[in-house]
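I'll show one example:
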Amino acid sequence: MEKHNQTSTNFILLGLFPPSSLGLFLFTLTIPTFLMALTGNLSMVLLILLDAQLHTPMYFLLSQLSLIDLIYICTTVPKMASGFLFGNKSISFIGCGVQCFFFATLVCSEGPILMSMAYDRYVAICFPLHYPIRMNRRVCVLMILGSWAMGAVNSCAHTLYVLHIPYCRSRAIDHFYCDIPAMLTLACGDNRVYEYTVFLSSVLFLLLPFIVILGSYGKVLLVVYHMHSREGKKKAYSTCSAHLTVVTLYYVPFVFTYLRPKSLRSPAVDKLVAVFYTILTPVLNPVIYSLRNKEVLGALRRVAGRLRPTTV
């Protein structure tokens, strides 16, 4: 039997799947899903980088969303797969801290990125003549850098805290990655004050951007409703529906995970919800933004045409 009470500083990730035939079956479904997410998001980032017609604020912001999804799956899935296949469930103290930092940075940066995308559509549809001024390249770059910087600073503070608190119980984390709330259940002492700071961070990085997004799209939908052009309405509704779908896929699991009372938390439920935002959402986002987007499909054809070898 594997011992989870260790005297070393390593943590043990109990993983996602049980060591059974059912676990093996679920694992075999995860690998192609991981590869699809990896391919889809990497393709989206490269497509926006290579095609000049996609060098607009909307697509630069979209490339950051794809980059976030790309790092999500690369931060969590490889270690989970290694633990299941080879039984190597141990993760070093520093390795756990690195995983915490990257994951928390992504969570805290995605909300501001989605808020920036909502503002971009708000200006483009409600103030089209002012769009080149309000959403120029400099503003777009500042939005992106600001989102990543805020996420990194907040993540650094939380990561340093969880790495410095004493752990007096088993070091077996009931999760498939180093999740901060799951790690707190192993800590000694009273961490209620810190748990309040986690809740406050969740409000700042989840709820405040969500309020801005709702306000932006409320105004956008009102303007679109009064449009006379049927084609303009269709294009606006298509863009907005894709973004609102992505916003929903982001907010529902994270709000459920980080803003529900501690008394209602369950490791099994937390892991199930984590699968949704670390594996399934990164697969769905490129599909949502590509299949219904003529500009992305057109860019894909142009880039594929340039890369196709010419016959002599």
Notes: Residues 3 and 172 are 9 Å apart (CA to CA).
